[in-house]
Design brief:
alpha+beta; Alpha-Beta Plaits; 5-stranded mixed sheet; 2 helices; globular
Length: 95
């Protein structure tokens, strides 16, 4: 199992980015979440057994939907958490 956390910066909120990411995750069998952050970025946590599918997912998410403008993408390898699904989550102001 491979897991990553992404931070996507640009015009990525209010343009359907979370729903785009959700649909791609379902297509590739990726588990985790996508969430708008208070600083205007989008955070994605993604894990998958198949590293090629995860790479393909990351590549598509990094481009974003046609309505978005992506300026910067940061990807960090992290420890898998064992998510069972991929969800759109909402920032609650706490970690």
């Amino acid at each position: 199992m491979k897991a990553v956390k992404m931070r996507i910066e640009g015009i990525v909120q209010g343009v359907g980015f979370r729903y785009y990411t959700y649909r791609i995750a379902k297509r590739y069998g990726v588990k985790g979440y996508v969430m708008n952050m208070p600083d205007g970025s989008v955070e994605v946590y993604a894990e998958c057994e198949d590293e090629k599918k995860l790479r393909d997912f990351l590549s598509e998410v990094a481009r974003g939907p046609s309505t978005a403008v992506v300026y910067n993408v940061e990807i960090e390898d992290v420890k898998p958490k064992g998510y069972k699904t991929f969800e759109i989550e909402y920032y609650n102001g706490r970690w």
